[in-house]
Amino acid sequence: MTDFTLEDLADTIALRARSEDPSSYTAKLFRKGPAKCAQKLGEEAVEAAIAAVQGDRAGLVGEAADLLYHLLVVLEVSGVSLDEVKQELGRRTQQTGLEEKAARNPA
Ligand SMILES: N=c1c2ncn([C@@H]3O[C@H](COP(=O)(O)OP(=O)(O)OP(=O)(O)O)[C@@H](O)[C@H]3O)c2ncn1[C@@H]1O[C@H](COP(=O)(O)O)[C@@H](O)[C@H]1O
Q1: Å from CA of 26 to ligand 1 middle
Q2: In whole angstroms, what is the distance from residue 14 CA to residue 90 CA?
Q3: Ligand 1 centre and the CA of 11: distance in Å?
Q4: What confidence tens digit (pLDDT) does each residue in 21-45 have?
Q5: Domains of the chain listed by start with CATH number
Q6: Is the CB–ligand 1 distance for residue 69 below 6 Å?
Q7: Is the pLDDT assigned to residue 46 strictly greater than 90?
Q8: DSSP per residue over 18-81, as a string?
Q9: Which ipTM did the prediction report?
Q10: What's the Cα-to-Cα distance from 96 to each of 6, 63, 93, 103, rounded to whole Å?
Q11: CA nearest ligand 1 atom 24, residue
Q12: DSSP label at 20?
């Protein structure tokens, strides 16, 4: 078990994106702009998909971690908060719940 959260990582990314620390990968990537950040996200998504297709479980864990990190970078560079994404997921869950209820109790 870990006390890691995506919210903490998103906060760290927001801070590091604007840092001038030369050791920060996030800062370097952020300076390259939204198109480069999006390109990296696409590459990581493909690498994760390949690991899944190959049944490479350990590889998939690593690629999924890269993918989530790069997704959070793209959200940050695009001015979209993780909370907005969670709200959207929550809204869908609510909708699904209502649909299931309606299916169980047709009028
Ligand atoms: N979770 C990550 C994380 N996941 C992946 N990566 C980086 O993403 C890059 C992806 O690897 P690639 O080989 O595709 O890319 P590359 O050839 O190194 O770089 P490019 O020139 O292609 O961009 C690697 O350099 C990884 O270090 C990450 N870099 C940083 N974090 C976390 O982000 C936070 C801030 O990090 P810094 O900005 O480095 O301080 C810290 O908590 C880190 O743990």
Answers
A1: 7
A2: 23
A3: 15
A4: 999 999 999 999 999 999 999 999 9
A5: 6-104 (1.10.287.1080)
A6: yes
A7: yes
A8: T---TT-HHHHHHHH-HHHHHHHHHHHHHHHHHHHHTT-HHHHHHHHHHHHHHHHHHHHHTT--
A9: 0.92
A10: 24, 29, 5, 11
A11: 25
A12: -
